Structure formats: structure tokens, C-alpha cells
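Tutorial, part two.
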Amino acid sequence: MDAKEIVKTVRDVDKNKGLPSDTSNTGETVESIETLEELAWHQQLHKILLSLEPTAFERLTQRLLRESGFIQVQVTGKSGDGGIDGVGIARISGFLSFHVLFQCKRYQGSVTASQIRDFRGAMQGRTDKGLFITTGTFTRDAIREATRDGAPPIDLIDGEQLVQRLKALGLGVKITMIESVEVDADWFTKI
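Running the prediction step on this input gives:
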């Protein structure tokens, strides 16, 4: 659904209830509209991400990591890569750097612990840090597996975090701020 249609629908519903514009429900109505708008762009972006070709999703991940401060980010883009979609270097404060291998999956469902173990196996001996990005979610077991003691850690980015990060970086998402101006008639009567 288009965000403008949602706003129009909510306003029409309030009109039909006969609520005066200065009622105390105005805050609730604005909150409802904002919640619906948030859902609308989230769903739209998620749908677009799921429709991307696997190579396009890998390139998007590459861009996302570069914009997040990674350097020398490369997509491996070849079959037989052992489950590694790309490599990059995360630089911290200009002093420390970590070589990171990443895997990205366009899933509607959940990534399982066995998929995390497979990725860790592909990482073995190549790096100390992994990053797994998905449009879906992670099972509880997958989250536990990613941070298991004695194993190289794997950071997890689920679909919710992914769309929020794309929004924060302005990648494929435009943010428009709307100014609201209200006249305080009572202020003038006190002059």
C-alpha cells in the first residue's frame, strides 16, 4: 500500500467518527499515521530487497559495508566460494583493522544454526571475524551459535536491522521532513 493512501484512509476514518480537530485523540491519530507510514516503507523496502537478484543483493551489501566504514570490500561472486560472498576490512578509529568475511542471504524465513556453522566452517583459517546479513531473521539457536565460546564470532544483521541501516545511510531510502506550524491564538489574547 502507498503511504499516502494509508494517511488518507486514516484521516477519512477520523472524519467519519466525527472527531473535532482539536480533540485529545489528535496525538493518537498522528501516532497511528506515523506507525502506518513506518510499516508501509518497511514493507516496500523489504519486498524490493527480496526481489533483487542474488548478485545485486551482494553488491548492495558491498555498498552498505563501504558506507559503514569498511575498506577494500570485494564481492567474491563465484561458485565454489565455500559460502563466502565477500571480504572486507573493518577499520576502527584509524588504528585497528579486522579482516571480515561476509555472507548475505535473501530469505523470508529464518537462518538456522546449521547455516551459521557452515559459514563458520568456510571462514576457518581465512579470518577471525564473520558477518552474516539476511533479509529474514535468525533462529535462537543461530544466534547462540554465532556467539558460541571458543569459536570465531559472527555478527548477525537481520532484515529489520538491514532496512534500518539502509535508511540511516540513505541507501535507496529518501527521508522527507515535514514542518508543522500551529498558531497559538491564546498567546495573542495575553498581549
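Residues 13 and 190 are 36 Å apart (CA to CA). In part three we will examine how such features are distributed along the chain.
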